[in-house]
Amino acid sequence: MRRSRIGLTLRRPARLHRTLKSDIKALVRGLRRSRLDVALGASVFLFVLIIFLISRVHQLADSNYSMLLSQSLIHHRSFTLDRYNIPRLLPTQQLFHVSNGSIYQLELVDNHIYYFWPPGTSVLSVPFVALMNTSGVSAANADGSYNPDGEVIIQARLAALLMAALASLFYFTSRLLLPPGWSLLLSLGTTRNPNLEHSLKSFVV
């Protein structure tokens, strides 16, 4: 009986050692995979960000004046655009609103000028627009007139940042089911989907 107890006592440390060694190896493998995923996810983010930043194809339609509304919220705490030097044109009846002449993005209500489309995009863009203002980029000129070039720059950079974040999110999400190679292909290929890109830009910028 004593010998069996001694043998059992001797075997327990050996089993514990093997278990601990196996756990450490599994932890190391997990850390290596985690570091690889972080590196690949960051690479996807930077790659997509650079591609969109160097792109010179910018098409604005409904989102014109949306960053000017963000400017108004920052500097005037107002949803009206009355404090900006926007030409007052002949009121024109559109399908759902009265626009400022041919500028259908602007709505005339009780002699006030508003951005016609839902303001959620402009509200969410306030922090980014404020950051761009600190670097000298603004949707309004010094005299209060509309600066379309500044609007384009702000929207283009915001779109680049959002698409890069989306691509990285796609990578990490797909890694739950797929190996790194397929996850890279999926994340990079999906962000080049024209319909997805257009939908995201329409929603956020």
Write the layout of secondary structure elements.
Elements: H1 2-54, H2 66-75, E1 91-93, E2 98-100, E3 103-109, E4 112-115, H3 120-124, H4 126-134, H5 148-174, H6 180-191, H7 194-204
Antiparallel strand pairs: 1-2, 2-3, 3-4
Helix pairs in contact: 1-5, 1-6, 5-6
List keywords for this structure.
205 residues, alpha+beta, 62% helix, disordered C terminus
Structural summary, described in words:
It is a single chain. Residues 194-205 have low confidence and may be disordered. The chain has 205 residues and is of the alpha+beta class. It has one domain (37-204). The chain has helices spanning 2-54, 66-75, 120-124, 126-134, 148-174, 180-191, 194-204, and strands spanning 91-93, 98-100, 103-109, 112-115.
Strand order of the largest sheet: 1-2-3-4
How many strands? 4
Uncertain regions spanning at least 5 consecutive residues: 194-205
Shape designation: elongated
Radius of gyration: 28 Å
Q: Give helix and strand order, one letter per element, not per position.
A: HHEEEEHHHHH
- Provide the helix percentage: 55-70%
